[in-house]
Write a sequence for this structure.
């Protein structure tokens, strides 16, 4: 984002505008935190702003300030279309290509609004007039903080905005432990706490509100864990039957893939989750060091993300997907053993 871009955006935001803010499908803490932080910032500056998520999000995010004002594109389709058609500006946050919004893609492609992208995923598409893309950033929430800073406006960050931003930095950094957590991240977080983010309370909302069934599902996932030491790889499967058995709810499998990475000497972890309704196997990949799961997912599972965290999917059965995965590993044996 150039100095010229910043002054253009300042001018654009100098008068009240109709603004839509969109995160990716199946929004996570960073997607919800960043869009709502920007929402609160914009309405404070007298804009008319709406967050539209492609679909619903987990219960552990259903406390975030302003969350009750979110429109869901799939279930509130007519109103969502109207807001998109009417928008002067559309901010797209925490994703890099329109297809990441699922069924919202055509509406975004057709919209004549000025697009502003703020995102930290690899290889962003070129759809936005103004692009703030930085793959080294811990989170889109950290970027929204920097965006507000570039606008010279951090003094307007109140406890509500700070809470939203803290949420996404916390979730995307695995509570400040991933390599993407920089000294700047910590400075931002320190400022957010000073501005009123209640760190213990936010952590409690996200991580300490499990249902009994969710923990039982985790037990099932861990008992399905397989380790392939020659490839320093571990993977977990969850079938639709297993999900049903534990009354699966959206978000229940969030973070489970990380258990594979917690094994000594394992640097590549995967989880394969059967989704009968969508007819796909949802794949999450995580890695350590320089082994790029973004590249791995792009090459084999039609997805992408970051070097150490990426998603993807497969159209064949759970068993066939796992077989495909295992058959691919020998060609990465060197890379996996030299990390
Ligand atoms: P998760 O495994 O939690 O679904 O995703 C891990 C990371 O990769 C997240 O930052 C997520 O936004 C991103 N991601 C997931 N699926 C895709 C995809 O298909 N394409 C891209 N570019 N990123 C993805
Ligand atoms: Mn993110």
């Amino acid at each position: 984002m150039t100095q010229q871009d910043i002054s253009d955006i300042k001018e654009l935001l100098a008068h009240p505008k109709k603004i839509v803010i969109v995160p990716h499908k199946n929004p996570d803490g960073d997607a919800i935190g960043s869009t709502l932080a920007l929402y609160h910032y914009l309405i404070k500056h007298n804009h008319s702003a709406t967050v539209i998520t492609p679909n619903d999000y987990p219960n552990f995010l259903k406390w975030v300030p302003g969350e009750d004002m979110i429109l869901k594109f799939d279930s509130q389709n007519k109103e969502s279309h109207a807001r998109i058609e009417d928008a002067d500006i559309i901010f797209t946050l925490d994703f890099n290509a329109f297809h990441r919004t699922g069924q919202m893609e055509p509406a975004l492609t057709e919209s004549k609004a000025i697009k502003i992208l703020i995102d930290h995923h690899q290889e962003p598409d070129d759809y936005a007039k103004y692009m703030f893309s930085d793959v080294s950033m811990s989170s889109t929430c950290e970027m929204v903080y920097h965006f507000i800073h570039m606008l010279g406006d951090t003094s307007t960050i109140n406890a509500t905005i700070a809470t939203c931003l803290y949420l996404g930095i916390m979730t995307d950094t695995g509570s400040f432990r991933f390599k993407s957590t920089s000294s700047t991240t910590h400075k931002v977080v320190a400022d957010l706490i000073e501005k009123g983010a209640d760190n213990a309370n936010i952590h409690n909302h996200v991580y300490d509100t499990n249902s009994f069934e969710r923990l039982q599902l985790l037990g099932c996932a861990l008992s399905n864990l397989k380790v392939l030491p020659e490839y320093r790889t571990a993977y977990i499967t969850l079938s639709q039957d297993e999900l049903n058995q534990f009354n699966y709810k959206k978000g229940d499998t969030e973070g489970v893939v990380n258990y594979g990475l917690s094994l000594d000497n394992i640097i590549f972890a995967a989880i394969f989750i059967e989704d009968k309704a969508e007819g796909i196997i949802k794949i999450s990949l995580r890695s350590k060091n320089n082994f790029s799961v973004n590249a791995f997912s792009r090459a084999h599972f039609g997805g992408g993300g970051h070097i150490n965290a990426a998603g993807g999917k497969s159209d064949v059965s759970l068993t066939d997907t796992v077989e495909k995965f295992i058959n691919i590993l020998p060609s990465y044996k060197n890379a996996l053993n030299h990390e």
